Amino acid sequence: MTPVARLVFPALRWRRRTGFDDERLRIERTLELGVGGYIFFGGTADAASALIREIQAAAPHPLLFAADFERGVGQQFTDRTQLPPPAALGFLGQSDLTARCGQITARQARQVGINWVYAPVADLDVEPNNPIVQTRSFGDLPDQVGGHVGAWIRAAEAEGVATSAKHYPGHGRTTADSHETLPRVDAPLDILAASDLKPFADGIAAGTRSVMCAHVAYPAWDSSGLPASLSAPVQRHLRTALGFDGVIVTDALIMEGVLRGRGAAGAVVAAVTAGADALLYPQDAEAVVKALDAAAGKALPSARVDDALARIARLVEAVSGPASSAPDLAEDGAFADALADMTLHVLRGEALGLVQPLEVVMVDDDVGGPYAVGPRDLLQRRLAELGVRMGRGGSRILLVYSEPRSWKGRAMLGDRSLGAIRRAAPTTALVILFGHPRLEAQLEGTTPVLCAWHGQPLMQHAAARWVAARLG
Predict the structure, then answer these.
(1) Cβ(394)–Cβ(356) below 8 Å
(2) H/E segment holding residue 421
(3) Which of 120, 125, 331, 466 is deepest in the core (most CB within 10 A)?
C-alpha cells in the first residue's frame, strides 16, 4: 500500500448476467493498493449500496464513492429516479426546478452511499457538430447555463454530496469526441473567459467541491497542445483566476484524448504534476499507482503529491457526515414525471388528430458502440397500459432516437437513419424526436415533430402520456 494510491479511482461496472461479481477481484486488488474510492456504472441502487458497505468495511481508510448522475440517480441505478436531461431543464428556464433536481439527486445518492456526484455539466451547447455535449448542457448562453449550474450545485451540496462541475474549461466548442481522439478548441483565453468559463465560475461561487478537467487541447492558451487535464497553465487559471480551492479530477483515463502518445502511466504522472488531485477510471489501477509511486519525489514533486492528498482528505471529511434527510422516492418520481411532461413541446406542426389503432415504428441512430442502448419499447408498452389500441389501420408514429454517446463520433443523424426516416415519412402522422431539438432541421417535410429530448425511460413514458392525451 502506498499513499499515492489514494489519488486513484477505478471503475466498477454492473453486468447483466453477473451484476458486480466480475469486479470482485478488481476490488480486492485495488483495496490492497489503497485507492481513494470508486466510480459506479449501472445496476441497481440496492446492489450498489450493499457493495459500498462491504467495500468500506474492508477498506483501510474512508473512501469516496462516485457516479455520473447528470440525469438523476436513475441514470445509473434502474430502481431510482430519472430526471430530464439538462437541456430540457434549460428549455424550461426555471432555476427552482433545476435546484429541485439537484436536491433529489443528492438525497438519493447519499441513501445509496454515493458521496461524490460527477455533475452538473457546465459546458456550453454552442457547436452544432459537437458529438458529446448536446442535451447534456443546460444551453448556449453563459449566464443561463451558469444560473442552472449554480442552482443545481447549491441544492446538491446542501444535501451532503460533493458535486463536480465539468468539463473545465469547456467541452462545448469541440467537434470531436475526447473518448476517441484529442479535440482542440482554438479560441484564446480572453474569448473563453467571457463565455465558456462563466458557468464554471458560477459553479465555484455556488460551492462545488470538485471540478472535472476535459481531455481537450486549447493551443491558443497553452501552446504545448496538451489536454486541459495535463496542462499546468489551464489548471493554474482554475486555482488563481477562478479561485477554486477544491479537488481537480481528471475525466476518465480510458479516453484517447489523454492516452494517445503517452499511455495511462505517463498520463497520471503528467496530470498530477499539472495540478490534478484525483485520477478517474484508469483501466489498470495497479499500473498507474506503480507509475505514480516511482515518480513521486522525482518527476512528480513531493509537495504536489502532498497537496493532492490533502485535498482528497478534505473532500472525504466534507462528505463523511450523515445525510441531511432521506428521499421520498414516490414524491421524487411524481415530480420527475410532471417535470418530464413540462419539457415536451412541438417543434413544428399543428394539432394532430391521431387515430387509433396506433402503429409505432422506430429509427435508432444510437446502435453500435461499446455500450448497449436502453430499452426502446417503453413508449409502446405504456400506450398499451393506458388503453390505447396498437396496430395498423390508424395513425403511424415514428420514433427517432439520437443521444450524445461515447465513441458515437457525430452529432447529427447518420445517413442510414436519414434514409429510414425518409422512407417512413410519407405515411407518418407524428415524429417523436428523442434527441436534441436542432435535429428537427434534418427531418424533411412537414410532419409534426414532438421534442422528447432523450430516449431514457422517463421521457418515453412522458411521450406516451402526451400521445394518449391527444387521441380522438
Answers:
(1) yes
(2) helix 415-424
(3) 120
Give the distance from CA 21 to its chain's centroid: 25
Task: Look at strands 449-451 and 345-348 and give their pairing.
Answer: antiparallel
CA distances to 53, 109, 427, 465 from 470, in Å: 48, 36, 19, 9
Q: Own/partner pairs for 306-312, CB < 8 Å, 24+ apart?
A: 307/277, 308/7, 308/272, 308/276, 308/277, 308/278, 309/3, 309/4, 309/6, 309/7, 311/246, 311/247, 311/277, 312/6, 312/7, 312/36, 312/64, 312/247, 312/277, 312/278
Residues assigned a catalytic role? 179, 251
Report how far apart, in Å, the C-alpha atoms of 325 and of each of 44, 156, 267, 319, 472 are. Answer: 21, 12, 40, 14, 45
Contact 423, 391 (CB under 8 A): no
CA atoms within 13 A on the CB side of 108: 30
Each residue's pLDDT, cut to its tens digit, for the chain (472 residues) gives 789 999 999 999 999 889 999 999 999 999 999 999 999 999 999 999 999 999 999 999 999 999 999 999 999 999 999 999 999 999 999 999 999 999 999 999 999 999 999 999 999 999 999 999 999 999 999 999 999 999 999 999 999 999 999 999 999 999 999 999 999 999 999 999 999 999 999 999 999 999 999 999 999 999 999 999 999 999 999 999 999 999 999 999 999 999 988 999 999 999 999 999 999 999 999 999 999 999 999 999 999 999 999 999 999 999 998 777 889 999 999 999 999 999 999 999 986 789 999 999 999 998 777 777 889 999 999 999 999 999 999 999 999 999 999 889 899 999 999 999 999 988 999 999 999 999 999 999 899 999 999 999 999 999 999 999 999 6
Catalogue all structural domains in the chain, each as residue range(s) with its CATH number: 3-318 (3.20.20.300), 344-468 (3.40.50.10870)
Query: How many whole angstroms separate alpha carbon 234 and alpha carbon 244?
Result: 12
| Residue 7 to residue 209: CA distance in whole angstroms | 16
pTM score, whole prediction: 0.96
